[in-house]
Amino acid sequence: MKKIYLLALALFAFTFVNAQIIDDNMEFYTLGEMGTQNAGTWTSWTNDGGASNDGFVVVDTQSNSGDQSILAEGGQGRDPLLLLGNQTSGDYTFRWEFYIPSGKEGYFNIQGEIPAQGTPLSGVWNSGDIYFNEGGSNPGVVSDTNGDLSMLSFPHDQWFTCILYVDVDNLTYQLTIGANSSAAIPFSGTGDTTLGGINFYPGSAVSEMYVDDAYYVQGPLLSTGDLEETAVTVYPNPVKDILNISTTTVVDSVVVYDVLGKVVLQAQPDTVSPSIDMSALSSGAYMVQVNIGNATKTVKVIK
């Protein structure tokens, strides 16, 4: 069921060291075929940025937050791929909200190095085939052709949280659902040592999965550099002049970047819930980075 949407936290697909890399709540897409609306973060199996029909669709029939999510459905030629930056070292956490109706199944796998856009994927798998209820049977079980996920289960007909931790240095991955976590599972042995992307493949007629609130960070999810669990919201969005930042703790600094990564505005409010004057900025999209201690939260703001 949809949750009431209070304040729009925007999609973020911009890289900062020791901060979040992707924060995408699907709210800023046009409904229907995804196409190339966010080609730098999402692509499809043809690796054309989502331009062909094996991309995916944005829907408002299910959502974990806000009004929208993305849908990959069997028989529809939808094969979305989330780009994780071709990481060759370090550890990373990808968290997303998943919804799978009764009698349906979900699926994902971890891809190795993703070639430059325009080169179709041939498939380099660093994980096994990870199924959520293969064949659409009940109850909700999770399986992995490369390792043991028998300790994991999931609910049908409601949103649930998946947390995937990938240690590129040690070539392992670990999946957590609810209070249960798998052991660290070795990469599948294809020889690839790169974390390239996550493929949500609707490979059968009973595949139907909704994805919302995709969140990807370097390091463990609940590290000190992660503000995702802290209440930080911005409004109004779009903004005309004054951007209000709602927080529960003192904000040390705010940095505003344009889409090219150039700093266009900086402030050190040293107060709870500051306001930032953006009246001098031209119309367009901006990344607003809020810094509290060692933690960072970044949102996309439209002016």
UniProtKB/TrEMBL annotation:
Keywords: Signal
Domain named Secretion system C-terminal sorting: residues: 234-302
The keyword Zinc belongs to this UniProt entry's keyword annotation: no
Coiled-coil region(s): none
Range of residues in the leader sequence: 1-19
Record's protein name: T9SS C-terminal target domain-containing protein
Protein source organism: Pukyongia salina
